[in-house]
């Protein structure tokens, strides 16, 4: 027999699943993740390139648009985990009717999930090939472990006392784990993006200016233009476009390296002209 709030065919603890899905699918949570992910990735990459993230002048819109693809992958993983959880719920609901030994073992594992999940991921971190995966997955394993342990208490028929208060702590733990894991994910991607910066793969840029810009980065060549009546009197070559954001162009030279290179910042509102050509 089902309660008025429980559709027929659902398990007695399906309300818990709906509560968790409502938290994870909340638009505010997803938007906050997009912004935080975009900022963290940009901050890590900027530091690796030798500049501060604040110099980029990126807006909230920039953070969101640059992180949509990666966060969608993260949400897809969460969705797959949700489907597996639903499958586990249906299986346990049937097995509880028989109260078999296997069910007792599963319930015991669920009660220890908050410890087992992080421990397994932590051990995987010592495998070189899985180090990055473990670094990203460890925070998420804590959140998943807390959720499964809480769920196991409900499945076992012994919901904890002070249910409302405990739900608040569980929601807080899951949110913390979600943003912590997002931070690790963004850090890994930011480092990967910085490692992949190769001037030869970037768009070539020629800068024209009415006056000398005194660009002294190694590999940059300054050429005075012969026409005295021209609006632009100097041309700078040997540059590559690193990024364009916040109304600024971020350029590096052909010989740029992370250790000794210089990042040149030119404002789009300055009286300059930029010509872009294929790398």
UniProtKB/TrEMBL annotation:
<feature type="transmembrane region" description="Helical">
    <location>
        <begin position="132"/>
        <end position="153"/>
    </location>
</feature>
<feature type="transmembrane region" description="Helical">
    <location>
        <begin position="63"/>
        <end position="86"/>
    </location>
</feature>
<feature type="transmembrane region" description="Helical">
    <location>
        <begin position="106"/>
        <end position="125"/>
    </location>
</feature>
<keyword id="KW-0472">Membrane</keyword>
<keyword id="KW-0812">Transmembrane</keyword>
<feature type="transmembrane region" description="Helical">
    <location>
        <begin position="16"/>
        <end position="39"/>
    </location>
</feature>
<protein>
    <submittedName>
        <fullName>Uncharacterized protein</fullName>
    </submittedName>
</protein>
<keyword id="KW-1133">Transmembrane helix</keyword>
<feature type="transmembrane region" description="Helical">
    <location>
        <begin position="165"/>
        <end position="186"/>
    </location>
</feature>
């Amino acid at each position: 027999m089902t309660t008025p709030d429980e559709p027929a065919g659902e398990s007695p603890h399906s309300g818990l699943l709906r509560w968790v899905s409502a938290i994870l699918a909340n638009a505010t949570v997803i938007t906050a993740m997009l912004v935080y992910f975009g900022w963290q990735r940009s901050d890590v990459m900027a530091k690796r390139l030798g500049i501060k993230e604040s110099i980029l002048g990126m807006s909230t819109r920039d953070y969101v648009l640059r992180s949509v693809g990666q966060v969608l992958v993260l949400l897809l993983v969460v969705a797959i985990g949700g489907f597996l959880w639903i499958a586990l719920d249906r299986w346990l609901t049937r097995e509880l009717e028989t109260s078999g030994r296997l069910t007792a073992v599963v319930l015991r594992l669920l009660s220890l999930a908050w410890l087992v999940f992080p421990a397994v991921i932590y051990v995987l971190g010592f495998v070189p090939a899985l180090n990055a995966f473990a670094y990203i997955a460890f925070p998420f394993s804590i959140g998943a472990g807390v959720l499964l342990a809480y769920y196991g208490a409900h499945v076992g028929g012994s919901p904890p006392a002070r249910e409302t208060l405990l739900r608040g702590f569980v929601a807080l733990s899951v949110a913390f784990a979600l943003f912590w894991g997002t931070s690790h994910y963004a850090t890994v991607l930011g480092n990967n993006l910085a490692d992949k910066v190769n001037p030869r793969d970037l768009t070539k840029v020629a800068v024209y200016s009415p006056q000398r810009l005194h660009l002294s980065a190694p590999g940059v060549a300054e050429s005075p233009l012969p026409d005295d009546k021209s609006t632009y009197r100097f041309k700078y070559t040997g540059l590559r476009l690193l990024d364009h954001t916040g109304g600024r162009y971020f350029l590096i030279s052909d010989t740029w390296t992370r250790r000794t290179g210089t990042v040149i910042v030119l404002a789009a509102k300055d009286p300059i002209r930029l010509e872009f050509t294929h790398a």
